[in-house]
Amino acid sequence: MAVVPDEASESARVEIVVPPVTPEQLHQQGQSSLAYQRLRAQSEAERNTPLYEQLREELVDQPYREGVSYFHDQEVEKAVVRFKQVLRLEPSHQRAQDYLERALKLSERLTHP
User: Fold this and answer.
1) Cα 26 to the chain's mean position, in Å?
2) Model confidence pLDDT, tens digit, residues 21-73
3) How many C-alpha atoms does 53 have within 13 Å on its Cβ side?
4) Are 71 and 93 within 8 A, CB to CB?
5) According to the record, where are the TPR repeats (predicted)?
6) Domains of the chain
7) Which residues pair with 16 in a beta bridge?
8) Helices marked H in 1-113 — which ranges?
9) Residue 35: how many CA atoms within 13 Å on its side-chain side?
10) Model's pTM, two decimal places?
11) Distance between CA atoms of 56 and 51, rounded to whole angstroms?
12) What is d(CA 91, CA 10) in angstroms, rounded to the nearest whole number?
């Protein structure tokens, strides 16, 4: 638990105890990206695996597949958005990095033939 000093009163020091927010609570509050990042940082032993896998599918795998589809349909701007979305959460996602580079090169060729 974190202890946060209350600076409102100089004469008496009051400490407010703030409990940590769990990935599950973050997800319930609609903060799925932050929940995923927290789950990803946990060891596999302490991680809520079903929630992690659900969020990975929603936030990483599905946007990656959409980006690949957009890329092959030459909807380059949409593909770039999806690959960047994936890389914000998974910076080491090599396939998304590769496709992003290819999409940016294709965009350049399409706009400057």
Assistant:
1) 13
2) 999 999 999 999 999 999 999 999 999 999 999 999 999 999 999 999 999 99
3) 4
4) no
5) 60-93
6) 2-111 (1.25.40)
7) 4
8) 23-28, 32-41, 49-56, 62-72, 76-89, 94-111
9) 22
10) 0.78
11) 8
12) 45
